[in-house]
Structure to design on (190 residues):
């Protein structure tokens, strides 16, 4: 999930391990993911890269499919607290909240989305130990947004077909703009 639409950029330094974030309408974002079965150094390294990629883009959450990896892994970081979500599932949810939501795969796009106000989530940590988090408000929203990514669901799926269509159009145009602009930036060879 992206940070608030307005607010100071934190300006993180690049570590050189950041991964490219896929943008909608990349078809990978709609694919289901596989559970994590090996809790090894490779997993720890991948999680570290996810955190680095999220921070450099001023996000508050990032899920593995957004970097092209179809595994049930996501990270959330808010107000100095980090939450690593591996094979997460919702145990309980309560209430309702509505707030503006964004996503690192949809730069500059925000929309009002209704979510439960409170959730209890069971997840595993880097060692495969079971952990239970209870979250409300913004963190609950971030957990649910990232867990949706692990099922190939996106925040625009909650919007009306009309709004979703407008965002798809905008993002498709953006994607085309990027691919057309790139060759022009390359130095000419003669
Ligand atoms: Ni997202």
């Amino acid at each position: 999930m992206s940070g608030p639409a307005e607010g100071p950029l934190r300006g993180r330094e690049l570590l050189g391990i950041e991964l490219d974030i896929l943008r909608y309408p990349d078809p990978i974002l709609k694919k289901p993911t596989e559970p994590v079965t090996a809790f090894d150094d490779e997993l720890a390294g991948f999680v570290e890269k996810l955190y680095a990629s999220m921070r450099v883009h001023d996000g508050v959450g990032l899920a593995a499919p957004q970097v092209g990896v179809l595994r049930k892994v996501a990270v959330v970081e808010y107000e100095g607290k980090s939450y690593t979500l591996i094979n997460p599932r919702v145990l309980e949810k309560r209430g309702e909240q509505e707030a503006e939501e964004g996503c690192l795969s949809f730069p500059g796009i925000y929309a009002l989305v209704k979510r439960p106000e409170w959730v209890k989530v069971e997840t595993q940590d880097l060692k495969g130990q079971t952990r239970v988090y209870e979250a409300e408000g913004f963190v609950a929203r971030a957990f649910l947004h990232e867990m949706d990514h692990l099922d190939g669901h996106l925040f625009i799926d909650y919007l009306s077909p009309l709004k979703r269509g407008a965002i798809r159009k905008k993002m498709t145009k953006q994607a085309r703009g990027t691919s057309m602009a790139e060759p022009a930036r390359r130095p000419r060879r003669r």
About this structure: Strands lie at 61-63, 73-78, 81-94, 97-102, 110-115, 118-124, 130-136. The pocket of nickel (II) ion is lined by residues 1, 103-105, 145, 149 (CB under 6 Å).
